Amino acid sequence: SAVISQKPSRDICQRGTSLTIQCQVDSQVTMMFWYRQQPGQSLTLIATANQGSEATYESGFVIDKFPISRPNLTFSTLTVSNMSPEDSSIYLCSVGLGTSVYNEQFFGPGTRLTVL
Amino acid sequence: AQRVTQPEKLLSVFKGAPVELKCNYSYSGSPELFWYVQYSRQRLQLLLRHISRESIKGFTADLNKGETSFHLKKPFAQEEDSAMYYCALHGSGNTGKLIFGQGTTLQVKP
Known about the structure:
heterodimer, A: mainly beta, Immunoglobulin-like, 7-stranded mixed β-sheet, 4-stranded antiparallel β-sheet, 49% strand, B: mainly beta, 6-stranded mixed β-sheet, globular
């Protein structure tokens, strides 16, 4: 298994500002994912951040709005840029262990973001 | 389109009653399906996956390709089963992407 921590756990931000969320894993992993869970909604994948390659964004998400860094095999950041109230969500990172994309994913505790 | 549907937002049962949380999917090909659970104040975690054909905490789920369903069942609900349950599908394209259903809150009353 993997133990994942996220910082901050929650934040309240003003519109137009940016917030960077950190995801730290206790072991080296190739596959890292960033999800968003809007209020009352399900989890939606924002992007896949595999070390050694550029992040791959899902339809509806763009790098300018959600830049991602993946400097090594245990760490990643997601920035929510130029925030608006619609960005108020829980942001989660997850990791897949091993080399198969079909392995179980382990999730972080999430970052609860409120944009005023 | 690849999609997961959980028709019930809330399922409330009494302790000892049978439980069935419904999940239907839309996917062309052989699906990889999972049930994830989130207990109060805990993170999302895997409950079971169809490929393992295992029973976890008394829960089972059978893939029915004809009905495109992957319902989660337990014969006798316990209060500690109260949680949010998500059905998830591995998307195509060898990316590891998970497609989640809307989630069902299971409430087991004493």
